[in-house]
Amino acid sequence: MPKLSVTEFLSLDGVMQGPGDPDEDRSGGFAHGGWHRPYVDDVFIKAASEGMAETGGFLFGRKTYEIMAAHWPSQPDSDPFAAVLNGLPKHVASTTLREPLEWKGSALLQGDVPAAVAELKEQPGGDLVVLGSGELVRTLMEHDLVDEFRLMIDPIVLGGGKRLFPEEGPVRPLRLVNSSTSGTGMLITTYVPE
After folding, report:
1. How many domains does the chain have?
2. Separation of alpha carbons 129 and 106, rounded Å
3. Using only C-alpha atoms, what is the Rg of the chain?
4. Where in the sequence is the domain holding 168, given as residue range(s)?
5. CATH code at position 162
6. Using omega within 30 degrees of 0 as the cis cutoff, is the peptide bond preceding 73 cis?
7. Using the 8-state DSSP alphabet, how is residue 177 labeled?
8. Does the residue 60 lie in any domain?
9. What pTM does this model have?
10. Residue 162 maps to a domain
11. Do the beta carbons of residue 181 and residue 187 sit within 8 Å?
């Protein structure tokens, strides 16, 4: 049975908004987009590649899906990340998008999102991975559907922006099962719920 893994780039103060590009997500006046890029190095690329090798499909919320779908389909398959992202199934939680979705291999989750994800977790195959998609991740956490958190924590404090974990909510103990540090000071961690 596949695990459901949440993979996120975080600042030290827990911000997940706009890690990849200055214009990725400016909602709420966020002006620090692209903050993760200076911390990418060979250690991170190796860890990310290993994680991708275990992936059987992706889960996206609408906003992250639209960002990813605007970029990855035009990337060459010689890029190992493009080959995986373009080649594997992509399941999208959205009430506003309509099928057919343009990015090859993409389909909308039907009906109740937690129930649809629970059903996906019962199917054979590789792990399901959520990239970004903060609202979706919070919904999955509320329904105890997350099996692990792969968090890349960069040594930067952004002071504001969307955070992965809500400011209010139940206590959720996690256990560290793997960690390493990149040459740029990024902590590459894996946590599982206790």
Report:
1. 1
2. 14
3. 16
4. 11-193
5. 3.40.430.10
6. no
7. E
8. yes
9. 0.93
10. yes
11. yes
Residue 94 CB burial class (10 angstroms; 0-12, 13-18, ≥19): middle
* Tokens, residue 64: 């992250």
Top pLDDT among 45 and 53 is at 45
Domain assignment of residue 127, yes or no: yes
- Answer yes or no: are the C-beta atoms of 54 and 185 closer than 8 Å: no
Q: Is residue 3 part of a domain?
A: no
pLDDT digits (tens, 9 = 90+) for 53-112: 889 999 999 999 999 999 999 999 888 899 999 999 999 999 999 999 999 999 999 889
SS3 12: coil
Any idea which residue has 């090798």 for tokens? 53
Return d(Cα 20, Cα 129) in angstroms, integer: 18
Beta bridge partners of 55: 127
Alpha-carbon span 81 to 128, nearest angstrom: 16
